[in-house]
């Protein structure tokens, strides 16, 4: 937690969250209800997080306030398979696992997620599923697949409660940078929240058949306990209720042998943290009951995306310049990420071209396709070039032939190739490209390649 203060006197401390996860865990019971009590399920949250970084540096890579997006996937600890695992099983990942790191090597082994889970390099299917989804997500954003690797946490860097943890690292001029963490946090968070709030954060499932359970049970004589411990009676009662089966078994033997047991408690009214419970107050016996439900605390698999770091690495990876011209830079953001999808340029300042450009802009807007018009006096080549640098993937030119036959050109940023067609055809092509139902190769194969008034050079 990042400690700060609030109010005019700065007397009241506040604690800024270092992750969104805990807020999700506090809502676990509600989330489980929304999911009709069925497992597995997931929650997700995105928001600002704060860390008291000693030396913030390197732009967006290490800052004190950053945007974090986290998924908490709740799973039965005995069933860590994932129904959609077959979708990612054959994805090949560069894995820098702990053994490789401990042997002093830095070259990852390239192996399919299926093989890595089978050989337990990755602890379980659900964790493997999310590593696959992380790489698919990063590549969809435009990250270069050859500049992604997954590094496993060593035992000494992994949170004590985690049973396996991998970082997706992206290669930048600063070296490999951790951008997404993916940890199996086991049952730690829900167990601790439950312990401190007293709220049960477990899942109850009907068993296919009732089973006979033998267990140790402790009972305090309430009247005698009240008389003996007065205000502390509740604390003592809670300490007894928290005892697990091995502890109860050991105490039963001690009680039998010595007629009394000593029990650790939270601080009592007199400041002590230990009570003596004689046989008259405490009884511990083995009981048998039929169990019809199974109760467990779910384990949590958590992919955690640092948005600023991903964005920084992406910008570095997709920024380049045209061969032999360092001044003509290009930001190859894919359509899914680019803030503006289409640049509309009237070829000249002829007053007849502008209304056509504006009508086309409105038509694209109605389709939900963000676009911008550049009707400035700069040459068309200059206007293309500056929008290439801003990352706008597509360009439509309205020219003098548009006035004659209604046709326009459509230009792709990275290749600078242009096609020509009616406005309807071009709008359909843009829609297909934005929605991902058509590729630029398909568009160039079915539409007429335009070599005319491009002025790209
Ligand atoms: N100071 C920070 N500035 C920007 N992003 C951060 C910062 N700290 C963490 N992140 C992002 O949050 C994600 C999840 O946080 P996590 O707790 O796993 O990071 P971490 O292991 O503490 O990071 P690091 O070891 O680099 O400090 C990281 O993968 C990263 O993208």
Describe this structure in words.
There is one protein chain. This protein is α+β, with helices and mostly antiparallel strands and 457 residues long. It folds into three domains: 2-189 and 298-310, 2-Layer Sandwich (BirA Bifunctional Protein, domain 2); 210-293, 2-Layer Sandwich (Signal recognition particle alu RNA binding heterodimer, srp9/1), CATH 3.30.720; 322-450, Rossmann fold (3-Layer(aba) Sandwich). Helices cover 32% and strands 32% of the residues. It is built from 15 helices and 22 strands. The protein has helices at 21-26, 28-34, 98-102, 113-118, 125-141, 188-197, 222-229, 233-241, 245-258, 307-318, 353-366, 380-390, 400-405, 423-435, 440-446, and strands at 2-6, 12-16, 41-50, 65-75, 92-96, 109-112, 148-152, 164-172, 175-184, 203-220, 260-264, 274-278, 282-296, 299-306, 319-321, 329-331, 342-346, 371-373, 394-398, 407-412, 418-422, 448-450. The strands form six sheets. Strands 3-4-14-9-8-7-5-6 form an eight-stranded mixed β-sheet, sandwiched between helices. A six-stranded mixed β-sheet has the order 18-17-19-20-21-22, sandwiched between helices. Helix 11 (353-366) links the parallel strand 17 and strand 18 (371-373). Helix 7 (222-229) crosses helix 8. It is elongated, with a radius of gyration of 31 Å. The chain starts with a strand and ends in a 7-residue tail after the last strand. Adenosine-5'-triphosphate (ATP) binds at residues 51, 53, 62-63, 66, 68, 178-181, 304, 306, 308-309. Adenosine-5'-triphosphate (ATP) is lined by residues 51, 53, 62-63, 66, 68, 178-181, 304, 306, 308-309.
């Amino acid at each position: 937690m990042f400690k700060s203060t609030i109010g005019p006197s700065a007397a009241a401390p506040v604690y800024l969250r270092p992750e969104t996860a805990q807020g999700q865990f506090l809502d676990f019971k509600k989330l489980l209800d929304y999911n009709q009590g069925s497992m597995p399920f997931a929650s997700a949250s995105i928001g600002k997080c704060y860390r008291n970084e000693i030396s913030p540096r390197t732009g967006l890579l290490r800052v004190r306030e950053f945007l974090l997006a986290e998924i908490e996937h709740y799973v039965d600890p005995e069933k860590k398979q994932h129904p959609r695992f077959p979708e990612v099983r054959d994805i090949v990942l560069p894995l820098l696992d702990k053994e490789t790191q401990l042997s002093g090597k830095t070259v990852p082994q390239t192996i399919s997620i299926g093989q890595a889970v089978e050989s337990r390099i990755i602890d379980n299917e659900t964790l493997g599923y999310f590593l696959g989804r992380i790489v698919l997500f990063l590549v969809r954003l435009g990250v270069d697949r050859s500049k992604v690797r997954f590094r496993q946490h060593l035992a000494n860097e992994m949170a004590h409660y985690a049973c396996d943890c991998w970082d997706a690292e992206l290669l930048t001029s600063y070296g490999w940078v951790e951008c997404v963490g993916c940890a199996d946090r086991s049952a730690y968070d829900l167990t601790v929240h439950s312990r401190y709030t007293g709220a049960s954060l477990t899942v109850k499932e009907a068993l296919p058949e009732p089973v006979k359970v033998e267990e140790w049970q402790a009972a305090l004589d309430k009247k005698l306990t009240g008389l003996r411990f007065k205000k502390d009676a509740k604390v003592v009662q809670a300490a007894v209720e928290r005892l697990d089966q091995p502890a109860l078994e050991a105490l039963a033997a001690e009680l039998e042998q010595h007629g009394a047991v000593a029990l650790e408690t939270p601080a009592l009214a007199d400041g002590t943290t230990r009570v003596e419970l004689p046989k008259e107050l405490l009884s511990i016996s083995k009981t048998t009951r039929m169990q019809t439900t199974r109760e467990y605390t779910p384990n949590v698999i958590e992919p955690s995306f640092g948005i600023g770091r991903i964005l920084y690495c992406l910008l570095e990876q997709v920024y380049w310049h045209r061969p032999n011209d360092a001044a003509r830079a290009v930001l190859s953001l894919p359509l899914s990420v680019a803030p503006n999808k289409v640049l509309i340029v009237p070829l000249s300042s002829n007053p007849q071209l502008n209304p056509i450009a504006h009508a086309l802009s409105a038509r694209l807007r109605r389709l939900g396709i963000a676009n911008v018009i550049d009707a400035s006096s700069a040459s068309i080549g200059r206007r293309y070039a500056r929008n290439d640098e801003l990352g706008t993937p597509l360009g439509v030119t309205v020219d003098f032939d548009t006035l004659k036959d209604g046709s326009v050109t459509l230009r792709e940023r990275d290749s600078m190739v242009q096609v020509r067609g009616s406005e309807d055809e071009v709008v359909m092509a843009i829609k297909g490209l934005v929605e991902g139902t058509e590729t630029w190769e398909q568009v160039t194969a079915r539409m007429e390649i335009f070599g005319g008034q491009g002025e790209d050079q």
